[in-house]
């Protein structure tokens, strides 16, 4: 397996001041199996309220996806005091870079998926709804189609800036003094279009940090725009469950062990079979 840590400033020279980086996990192909195999690639955006990026939603998730045969990239994006659009530009640059590395990393360029947790779900979803905006392609000097995700997996995502907002995420993303109008411009359910990628979403009904209405609102907008999606609402479970098992549980947090909710991963992999 290839493992590399790459600074975003090396991924795209137009982000030379970025301190963000990616961790790339690229399984080797085998003569015995298929030396020319092209793999689906997952780009993971860990959560952390745009104030940090969680270890629990990074390498443990990467290793599970690798075990299912995917290439995996974990993006450790810029957080507060950095503001929008820094993290979004870093994710877009990562998407473009993965496509550029298709021959070296055996990437299927038409099957690159962004996966985000909590605020990382907001970041992943932001690329899904904003990938065709001029300010991104012009800043990075890239082709718009090279930064479009082919699909998204959003896990208990921050979506709305309205009534059910996780205000802390928007405070870190835009600054505490940002106006409601500025926040509304990044309320993702209002930005969905027919060009938004197909999406897999999951949430828990009683999430006390990021209300379940975030996923419901996004799913409703996808339906209104005829964008295919799969949505799973589990009856109970705390926020930030990640893989819902010991490999990703916070120390001494027994409520992070939730085998029923943990079925989301198998369901997501099954859903990806048709991407």
From TrEMBL:
GO MF terms, alphabetically ordered: hydrolase activity
According to the record, the signal peptide region is none
Please identify the protein, giving its name as recorded: Alpha/beta hydrolase
Question: Which Pfam families does the protein's record reference?
Answer: BD-FAE (PF20434)
Residue intervals of the BD-FAE-like domain: 36-222
Keywords attached to this Swiss-Prot or TrEMBL record, sorted alphabetically, are: Hydrolase
């Amino acid at each position: 397996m290839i493992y590399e840590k790459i600074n975003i400033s090396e991924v795209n020279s137009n982000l030379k001041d970025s301190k963000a980086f990616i961790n790339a996990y690229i399984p080797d192909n085998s003569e015995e199996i298929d030396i020319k195999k092209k793999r689906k690639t997952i780009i993971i955006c860990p959560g952390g309220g745009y104030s940090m990026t969680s270890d629990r939603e990074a390498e443990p998730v990467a290793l599970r996806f690798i075990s299912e045969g995917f290439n995996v990239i974990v993006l450790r994006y810029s957080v507060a005091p950095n503001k929008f659009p820094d993290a979004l530009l870093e994710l877009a640059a990562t998407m473009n870079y993965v496509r550029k590395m298709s021959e070296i990393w055996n990437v299927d360029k038409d099957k690159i998926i962004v996966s985000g947790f909590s605020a990382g779900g907001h970041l992943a979803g932001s690329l899904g709804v904003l990938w065709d905006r001029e300010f991104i392609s012009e800043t990075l000097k890239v082709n718009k189609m090279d930064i479009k995700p082919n699909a998204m997996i959003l896990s208990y995502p921050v979506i709305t800036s309205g009534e059910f907002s996780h205000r802390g995420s928007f405070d870190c993303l835009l600054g505490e003094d940002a106006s409601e109008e500025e926040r509304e411009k990044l309320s993702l359910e209002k930005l969905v279009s027919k060009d938004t990628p197909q999406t897999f979403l999951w949430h828990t009904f009683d999430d006390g940090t990021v209300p379940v209405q975030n996923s419901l609102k996004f799913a409703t907008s996808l339906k209104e725009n005829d964008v295919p999606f799969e949505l799973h609402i589990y009856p109970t479970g705390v926020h930030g469950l990640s893989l819902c098992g010991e490999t990703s549980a916070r120390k001494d947090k027994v409520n992070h062990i939730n085998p029923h909710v943990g079925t989301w991963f198998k369901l997501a992999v099954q859903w990806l079979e048709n991407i």
